[in-house]
C-alpha cells in the first residue's frame, strides 16, 4: 500500500495516475497476444488463411487500454457464427472463454502491483 501526506500525496497520486494505465496496458497487451494465439490454435483451417489473419491490436492511453482480437477477412464472422448453409465453427468465443479468468487475473495483478509500487 502507498501512503503519502501533504505535498507528497499529490506527487504520489500523479505517479499512480501514470502507472496504472501503463501497468494495465502491459497486461492487456500480453493477454491480447495470448488470446490471439488461443484463437489461432482453435481456428478451423482449410488453407490456413483465416488462422494466419487473426491479429491483436492494442490501444493504450492515459485513460486505459483496450484490445481487439480477430480477423479482417470477410468470411471470418461466417466461420465463427455460421450461415444458413454452413454450421458455426466458433474459435474466437471459445478462446475468450478459455482465457477469461487468466485475463482478469493478470490485469488485477498488474493493477495491484502498480498500487503497491512494484
Keywords:
single chain; 2 strands; 118 residues; 60% helix; mainly alpha; elongated
Compact summary:
The chain has 118 residues and is mainly alpha-helical. The chain is 60% helix and 12% strand.
Explain what this protein looks like in three dimensions:
The protein has helices at 7-42, 49-53, 76-81, 92-115; strands at residues 55-61, 64-70. Strand 1 (55-61) and strand 2 (64-70) form a beta hairpin. The longest helix has 36 residues, at 7-42. The mean pLDDT is 88. Strands 1-2 form a two-stranded antiparallel sheet. Helix 1 runs antiparallel to helix 4 (92-115). The protein is elongated. With 118 residues, it is mainly alpha-helical. The chain contains four helices and two strands; from the N terminus they run ααββαα. The termini are close together.
Strand order of the largest sheet: 1-2
Provide the structure class: mainly alpha
Uncertain parts: none
Helix content: 55-70%
How would a textbook summarize the main sheet?
2 strands, antiparallel
The CA-CA distance between the termini, in Å, is 10 Å
Q: What is the alpha-carbon Rg in Å?
A: 19 Å
What's the total helix number? 4
Chain-averaged pLDDT:
88
* Secondary-structure element series: HHEEHH
Proportion of β residues?
5-15%
Name the overall outline.
elongated
Topology (elements, then pairings):
Blueprint: H1 7-42, H2 49-53, E1 55-61, E2 64-70, H3 76-81, H4 92-115
Helix pairs in contact: 1-4
